[in-house]
Amino acid sequence: MTATQTGPAGRMQIARGLIALRERCGLTQVQVAERAGVSKTTVSRYEMWQDRARIRWATVKALADACEASAEEREALVQVAKSQTEGWWVGNSAVPEWLDPLVSFEHEAEYEHLYANTVIPGLLQTRDYARAVHQAREVRSPDDEIERMVDARIQRQGILDRDPALHLWIVLDEAVLRRDVGDREVMAEQMAHLHDMARRPNIDIQVLPFSAGAHAAGAGHFVILGRNDERNPLNSMAVVYIEMRRRGLYLDEAEEVTAYKLTFDYLRSQAADASASLRLLAKARQELTS
């Protein structure tokens, strides 16, 4: 198991591990609590990654021992607990609290699959485009606050340059290319940026054209973040993020994640392929500069 370094992603890894150990032993949360000398509330809290309370490695050790974990299993979970650190975004006023888990998961994920039907996703926005988006959404925020939000968004994009690289696969509804955000110059620069980013080996961009008609998503923006480890399933991760107004919804139940993965597979099949999508991006830019 690889020690996870950032908040919610690490808590999810610990929670998944403790649940798996408890279920393997056929114990209830009450029974684990009695064995570990803690309250049932504590057991429940450690099995829920959404809880923001501090994780204590001694408690993780006690819970693992209560579930008859092997020395290797116990040590792996304890090391994750000991390695917990907060990322640059935690406590940053420019990053809303409900977005903390998304940025954390991005730092631990191997891949990110994303469908967008309103605006260019934040990871691929230019600075001017990002500024226009925030100005539209945060109409009562002062300019200096808007700039801090833009700076945070650009800093978040650094995840695309890490080693090993995050594999980003995006399906963009054609409406995103046609919706003017900022002026024509901002849009032209944004289209050129998308075209350039689509040529990177770790980024795939497909455009879902209007001609595709009704499609699998049926709704709005969603993100699937994951990490696969066949040798150690407990080190794997899969979560869906659904963007809402001033809050985000995170889904990690296997059935729900599988449903969104299937939806994304259908969207990829309905969208234009990589070459055709590059042509659509180039055409959109040409129309903006002609």
UniProtKB/TrEMBL annotation:
Transmembrane segments: none
Domain HTH cro/C1-type: 18-74
CDD domains linked to this entry: HTH_XRE
UniProt feature coiled coil, ranges: none
One Pfam family matching this protein: DUF5753
Family matches, as InterPro entries: Cro/C1-type_HTH, DUF5753, Lambda_DNA-bd_dom_sf
Protein name: Helix-turn-helix transcriptional regulator
